[in-house]
Amino acid sequence: MTEIEAVAKAYGSKTVGFRFKGIDLTLSLSHGLFSSYDVDSGTRLLLRVLSHHIDEAKSQNQGLPSSILDAGSGTGVIGVALGTYFQSLGYR
Question: How many domains does the chain fold into?
Fold first, then answer.
């Protein structure tokens, strides 16, 4: 292992798992990001609310999003969760 690889390993990531709409997801989080120890409680709450709205929209045959934009949102948990669930959508 090179010195750069050792530094990257020491400071670069921690593997964190979470579940969204029945899908198990794993992220490698950088120690330099907000909530690098786990998915924070605010993000978990927002994902639960989004899950509820998705279920409600489906039950009422309402339209679902046609694309997902994840711009500058820290670890990208929300974008990864939605992009994985809505695999047919464009993810940016």
Answer: 1
